[in-house]
Design goal:
This protein is α/β, with parallel strands linked by helices and 406 residues long. The chain folds into two domains: 163 residues, VC0802-like, CATH 3.30.2130; 226 residues, 3-Layer(aba) Sandwich (Rossmann fold), CATH 3.40.50. The chain is built from 15 helices and 15 strands. The strands form two sheets. Strands 1, 2, 3, 4, 5, 6, 7, 8 and 9 form a nine-stranded mixed β-sheet that branches. Strands 14-13-10-11-12-15 form a six-stranded mixed β-sheet, with helices on both faces. A hairpin with a 3-residue loop joins strand 2 and strand 3. Helix 3 crosses helix 4, helix 8 crosses helix 14 and helix 9 packs across helix 13. It starts with 5 loop residues before the first strand and ends with a helix.
């Protein structure tokens, strides 16, 4: 099995960013460093045209799993550094091809040479290495325009670098290049997908999750943290902000008409999210609302709820079908967890007949009957902030705690 020595990372949209390109590349390098922080032997060298990751013995298979989830990477290739001799080039090229070639595939050799003093030029190397491969691999076919495999030979000053895989990353922008925002995370399917899409556009998000003990269980809170841990694979770390919401829900249920319970609850959630955004230096609020999906997500409801803030509220999945959202949730690994039956605070206090077309003036009137500032201040005083990293376990820990209590 080939022992790769480095990975060549190619940028995607960064190539269009002009004067900001250097900052974007620096941010990408920082994000790659975070997701590979448990491989201290690795060296990362960000350059203008590409990033070089020197493995120094680290296993490419593990690095590959991490790089597939880093936004801002268009493609990358594992490479082998070898001495600058024709014998080494031919021998290693054959090993690479035998590892990746399958019957019926086509190939081409593509040589680039920055060391112009090397004894063979690009055409000579293309021909000699191609002939060597034809002599040692049966049924090999050349294709110059659209080959299945491109064997890339780069002759640099220090050595020769060989690669023949082109692995696609997730694209997008490096997380953090678009600024910071708050994400309103429930335990459902939509908001984790919205979180993923926000990060793909370079937004550095912090999760705000509302919980209502004793009505919601510790498992529901653990589920939201577990979802955050899955999403942290795409950026290295996400702060999770748990907001106590039971007093607000109890007060609304006791004092206001049933039809407006959901509308007023959502207005409080948005006000709290906005307070947290301001404290944390965020520029916007994101959520997982999809137009018309539930009563609180009709356009009339959005008007009545958004009334409490002038901060931009961005809804990445607003126009997506449910089937599209589910497909993306499956792709990013959040779907199976999202459908686990641990009820969140939106579910347990949901009225049987919520207003689908609430009136803005009524929403303001009902909310004014409450001690809005006092309720918000007490909720803000009880928030808990937890930094969450990739692949942490929360649900398993909670199950173990429950068993210990039995």
């Amino acid at each position: 099995m080939i022992k790769y020595t480095e990975v060549m990372v190619r940028y995607g949209e960064l190539s269009t960013k002009g004067k900001n390109r250097k900052d974007f590349i620096g941010r990408l390098a920082g994000n790659v460093t975070k997701v590979l922080n448990d491989f201290p032997e690795i060296e990362i060298h960000p350059r203008h045209d590409r990033m070089h990751i020197v493995l120094n013995g680290a296993p490419f298979e593990e690095i590959d799993k991490r790089l597939k989830k880093v936004f801002g990477i268009q493609t990358y290739s594992p490479a082998v550094k070898i001495p600058k001799t024709l014998e080494d080039i031919e021998k290693t090229s054959l090993e690479l091809m035998k590892e990746t070639f399958k019957e019926g595939m086509t190939f081409k050799v593509n040589t680039r040479r920055s060391d112009h003093k090397f004894e063979y030029d690009t055409n000579q190397l293309n021909i000699m290495v191609g002939d060597y491969l034809f002599d040692h691999i049966d049924n090999l076919k050349a294709e110059m325009k659209h080959p299945d495999i491109v064997l890339r030979i780069e002759v640099r000053q220090d050595a020769v670098y060989l690669s023949n895989q082109l692995i696609h990353g997730v694209g997008g922008m490096p997380v953090g290049t678009a600024g910071k925002a708050i994400m309103m995370l429930s335990g459902g399917i939509d908001s984790p997908v919205a979180s993923y899409l926000a990060m793909k556009r370079g937004v550095d998000i912090e999760m705000v999750h509302f919980f209502s003990p004793p009505y919601t269980t510790d498992k529901a809170l653990a589920k939201a943290k577990q979802l955050t841990s899955i999403l942290a694979n795409y950026c290295g770390k996400i702060n999770f902000i748990a907001v106590p919401f039971a007093e607000i829900q109890e007060t609304i249920k006791e004092k206001l008409p049933e039809g407006y319970l959901m509308t007023i609850q959502r207005r409080f959630m948005l006000q709290l999210a906005d307070r947290i955004r301001a404290q944390r230096g965020g520029l916007a609020i994101f959520n997982g609302e999809s137009v018309g999906q539930v009563a609180s997500q009709t356009l009339q409801s959005m008007v009545a709820i958004n009334d409490v803030t002038t901060t931009p509220v961005i809804r990445p999945v607003a126009t997506m079908d449910k089937t599209e959202i589910i497909k993306l949730a499956e792709d990013i690994g959040t779907f199976d967890l999202s459908i686990q039956p641990f009820e969140d605070c939106c579910t347990i206090f949901a009225p049987p007949r919520p207003k689908t077309k609430p009136k803005l003036d009524k929403a303001r009137e009902y909310e004014a009957r409450l001690d809005v500032e006092g309720l918000i201040e007490r909720a803000m005083a009880g928030i808990e902030i937890t930094p969450i990293y990739p692949n942490q376990e929360f649900l398993e820990d909670q199950v173990q705690e429950d068993m210990d209590l039995l």
